[in-house]
From TrEMBL:
The protein's name: Uncharacterized protein
Record PROSITE patterns: PROKAR_LIPOPROTEIN
Keyword Transmembrane helix recorded: yes
Keyword terms of this UniProt record: Membrane, Transmembrane, Transmembrane helix
Positions of transmembrane segments: 12-37, 57-75
């Protein structure tokens, strides 16, 4: 099994994957909180789905690519460490 240095296509996939994962996770958490208020507490939460979805996308756009870049840099550093042995 050969290992090759992580390239820029890997960086793109990591950034896109982290963006999608983070956005979906935040949206699901907001949806869970909304369901909790609506059905468990049976009181209006004052939340609407459009601002919550927009906020989830903002968090994903702001943090997802940065996390992907960090993972990619870590992968390249680990690869470089393996070359020196």
């Amino acid at each position: 099994m050969s290992t090759k240095k992580p390239g820029f296509s890997t960086l793109f996939y990591l950034m896109a994957g982290c963006f999608l994962a983070l956005s979906c996770t935040v949206a699901l958490v907001y949806f869970g909180v909304w369901l909790y208020y609506q059905f468990i507490l049976q009181m209006p939460s004052g939340m609407h789905w459009q601002p919550l979805l927009t906020n989830a996308l903002r968090i994903g756009i702001a943090s997802g690519p940065v996390i992907g870049l960090g993972v990619w840099i870590h992968m390249r550093m680990e690869y470089s460490k393996g070359d020196k042995r």
